[in-house]
Amino acid sequence: MKPFFIRKIASVLVPVMLLTLGVPQALLASNHREAPITALDHKADITDVYAFVSYSADQAPDTPPEKVTLIMAVDPLLEPANGPTVFPFDPDILYEIKIDNNHDALPDIVYQFRFSTEYQLPEVFTALAGFGDSGATDPETGNLVVPPQIRDFDNPGLNQRQTYTVTRRDLERSGKRGRVRSERTRISSSDGSPLYALPVNAGPRTMDYEALFGAATYRNLNVEGMSVFAGTVDDPFFIDLGAAFDTANFRTLGSGVPGVLTADEDAASQNFASDTVSGYAVNVIAIEVPIEMLTSTGRIEPATAPEATIGIWGTTSRPRITVRRSPNPAETTGAYRQVQRFGNPLINELIIGIGYKDRFSMDEPGNDAQFATFFLNPPIAQIVEALYNELLPGALDVPEADRTDLLPLVQYTAPIAAPGTPAGPIADLMRLNTGVPATPLDQASRLGLIAGDPAGFPNGRRLYDDVVDITLRVGVGGVLNPDFNKAPNNSLGDGVNVNDAPFRTEFPYLANSPDGRNRRHIDPGEASPDGSDIPVD
């Protein structure tokens, strides 16, 4: 006799399960699906990459940096209510976070994540189930039918359970693109126990998600000072997607000009347009690393040292050959081939032409000179300027090509890198000056570097950095050029200033996944979580 979900319950629920499996799931589109290849392979789609000097809730000003947090999010717009199968990482995908620490746009350090999936109760119809302290029993037999609420990774109610491995590779090359030598270090829990991935939040009856989140945050590892986390969390990205992809049809707010914020709106920690990503989850891997393990010198360098600035990007890769032998499982063979890469936010989405997006996704940052025209003459800037000229003639003037003001996004230059840092080739990497102290939360700005907050995007990227508004002002408005740092160029924005869920103030910093029973997607005309009304126009 099976201890859980015995025959009586299964006989009632299996027909429901079969009906559910017969309904095709709709494909969701967003700026998270930035290339045709990942619109079809959303498991390999990298939605965002974050890199920042770690901080605490009581962060003091000018505290010398010690660690860096690196985060990569994949598989966009996950609906937490969408059971009975939830959203695991793909065991066929190699997830990697890469670091360039000698300014040549080639990886010197790589953190690799691989996942495995097991089913503790393969005859049960759902991936997650739980109830109360003791579960629920069959009234006729007294057998346990529903397991207790899921509060740890040993509970069989966590039917679909994932473990993962983390490997660090230190690379050395003989010449710029010569033979690569690799030293591998396996990163694991200090006692050798498995690393478990946090599942999606199914709801308050099924699981204690907060307890699982704590258990999935691994700080006691075999490498001192490191921490790791993997799991399904609230999507930290925030944007009015509907406005952005209705041909930049940003909403008209207090200024009376579409896509232009008033000073009060700009300064507010609330949203004036709907966060389209609200209520959705995403799969995330995160790793916290001592800075001396990332720099080329093996030391914590001051912000004035060229060696302090590193480049970060994420990639997903699949085996070269997949053979499907239905109804048997597919078989994969061959070397890994890159499907997607991600450095700076919104580069592939808003800068690269759609006919080039797949090539950009699968190529290496060191080859990005072929995309220099997009970087230094972004079509979106001309599109937005043309739209404003039609709607409000003369309202917006943007810099002409070539946009050398955008070089800090694609080379190691000021104001991120120290003077004397080799610029390196044009390459889409997220540059982080590891010598810049974290900004205390009460002094931090969502607008990062352009608002005088030196620890914010584009010097790395924190979860709460408003990269949409920053990108509009830098990429379209050209505010890094002093001649264009004026209204309305420095007031462009989508009206979404904050995430819909509060971020943590310690590693891994991410917010809880919305729970499947009570999640909410905020639309125009509805009240936001802070109680303010979201305008329709």
User: Which ranges are low-confidence, i.e. pLDDT below 50, for 5 or more consecutive residues?
Assistant: 1-31
Helix-strand pattern, N to C?
HHEEEEEEEEEHEHHEEEHHHHHEH
Number of domains: 1
Please state the average pLDDT score: 89
Explain this structure to me?
By secondary structure, the protein is α+β, with helices and mostly antiparallel strands. It has one domain (31-120, 159-491). The chain is 15% helix and 22% strand. It is built from eleven helices and 14 strands. The protein has helices at 7-21, 36-40, 209-215, 241-244, 263-267, 347-350, 357-362, 372-376, 379-391, 407-410, 467-476, and strands at residues 46-53, 67-78, 94-100, 109-119, 136-137, 144-146, 160-173, 180-187, 195-196, 227-234, 281-290, 309-323, 331-342, 430-433. Strands 3, 4, 7, 8, 9, 12, 13 and 14 form an eight-stranded antiparallel sheet that branches. A four-stranded antiparallel sheet has the order 1-2-11-10, with no helix packed on it. Residues 1-31 have low confidence and may be disordered.
Write the layout of secondary structure elements.
Layout: H1 7-21, H2 36-40, E1 46-53, E2 67-78, E3 94-100, E4 109-119, E5 136-137, E6 144-146, E7 160-173, E8 180-187, E9 195-196, H3 209-215, E10 227-234, H4 241-244, H5 263-267, E11 281-290, E12 309-323, E13 331-342, H6 347-350, H7 357-362, H8 372-376, H9 379-391, H10 407-410, E14 430-433, H11 467-476
Antiparallel strand pairs: 1-2, 2-11, 3-4, 3-12, 4-7, 5-6, 7-8, 7-9, 10-11, 12-13, 12-14
